[in-house]
Amino acid sequence: MKTHYKTLVVSLLSGCLSFQALASDIDEAIESATKHYKAGELSQAIAQLDYASTLIRQEKGEQVKNAFPPAPSGWQAEDASSEVAGAAMFGGGITASRNYYNDDHRIEIQLMMDSPMLQAFSMMLSNPSMIAMSGGKLIKIQGIQAVQKVDGDNLEIQLLSPTGAMITLRGDNAAQSTILKLANAIDLKKL
To answer: Where is the signal peptide, in residue numbers (predicted)?
Structure first.
């Protein structure tokens, strides 16, 4: 028990130290950008601000992994992962995913946020005619309008969180009840 406690304390302290180091790097990049800007060195200022925004996205990407629900009873879950794209790549953004599985089925939850590419999905989601033409049907997840599509044995559910994050769940249609359970268990406040 003492060893477990010590391990927990050490990991919490190292997490705090890495957060402080990241915050320090962000502060330094912003300060450097300000100095370059005041000196008329606009390219260097932009580079430093891009660096700071990438570090902030990395921090947010780590926090977003906490939005994924735990594995339902009888299922297992892989560790969540996240990736950050800078503004030069598709306008920037954060993606995160987590896979759930049991002996018979596999479900993937993907999150995408802070990307200008999400505007197109937002427009589609607000147009029920486009949803119907694409073979989808409207459902509610956590009180939010979502699109459910069935393609053979595959089921996909997509929705936008109140903060503008796109959430996509994919899996076997036979696991529909578990997919819906996971969709309703995502912690939208952490997005």
So the answer is: 1-23
